[in-house]
Amino acid sequence: MPQPDAFLAVCGHTHLFPGARCRLQGLPDPQTFADRPHPIDVLLRFSDSVTTDAQLRTADPAGTVLAVPAYTTGASTPIGARAWLVREFAPTGDEVELTIGGNAQS
Q1: DSSP β-ladder status, 82-92 and 71-72
Q2: Residue 87, exposed/middle/buried by CB under 10 A (0-12, 13-18, 19+)?
């Protein structure tokens, strides 16, 4: 169930991978968030309309991490829980585009 204060992130694929991008929506100040991200709850919506809760964490020693629990794609493919490094935050108008890096647990 989505967190009440979660921000929607629209992803262009059915799963995340290095180089994947998601557009974070509804932030009060996208430019400031892109410059200085802080921890937030996120509702990821993938291209197959599957949604899952996630967390953006900034206190990880490796950098900013998007922690995603296990979920199942619309084609019934199970995707295991994973923590992804966020390689880049880019403001794009009233959204912030996240670019996924590698696995944070590697």
Answers
A1: unpaired
A2: middle
84 confidence band (pLDDT: 50, 70, 90)? very high
For 19-66, the pLDDT digits (tens) are 999 999 999 999 999 999 999 999 999 999 999 999 999 988 888 999
State the pLDDT at residue 4: 58
- What are the E-state strand segments in 31-81? 40-45, 51-57, 65-68, 71-72, 78-79
Q: Is the pLDDT of residue 106 over 60?
A: no
Answer whether 45's CB lies under 8 Å from 22's CB: no
* SS3 at position 31: helix
SS percent in the chain: helix, strand, coil, step 5: 5, 45, 45
What φ, ψ does residue 82 adopt, rounded to 5°?
-160, 150
The span from the CA of 65 to the CA of 102, in Å, is: 10
